Amino acid sequence: MIDLSSPLKADTFTHVRIIVGIITGLCMTRLLNGLSRFVQQPNKNHVFFVHIGWTFFLLLDMVNFWWFQIRLANTVAWSYDLYLFILFYASLYFFTCTILYPDKIDHINRMDDYFLSRRAWFFGLLIALNVTDLLDTTLKGQDYLAHLGLPYIMHISIFVVLCGFAIRTRQLRFHKGFAAFAIVEESGWAVFAYSSIV
Fold it and tell me: What keywords would UniProt list here (predicted)?
């Protein structure tokens, strides 16, 4: 019999972390499988630097996501709403990864044409991820948000503005520059903000 009146004995964070880990694992599997297709079938798919760049960005961003979610271990009281929010956040990564590497990729002749045709979805989801990240950081407490400070707000704001511009333009020079900038900036941010979890 389950005693509904007694407090939970299970570690709630571990319970949440497992399902978030499953979603994150599915994301990384999709990205790594997508990259491996370029090696398996080099003549079938045209390699597009921007597409590859965003793949590496998402891999790095998800590693960072998994790393900083350890802060949720300090959550005093879990609620079903918070649980759903964390699952929603992780699921946004999955949807973003499916835009880069859809289920049926064999009919795509040129990856640059495909990427540019889906840029509104891709960059729209990146905007949603950044807004969700801001909400997630706020949920971790005002002290944590203050610890990250102005650099964090600038990190989010600049990225969202550039994503908004990327939705509107097909200029390859901008998209190449933005993909390169995103990788460098995310790497720098990881070193600045997440090199330690203490």
Answer: Membrane, Transmembrane, Transmembrane helix
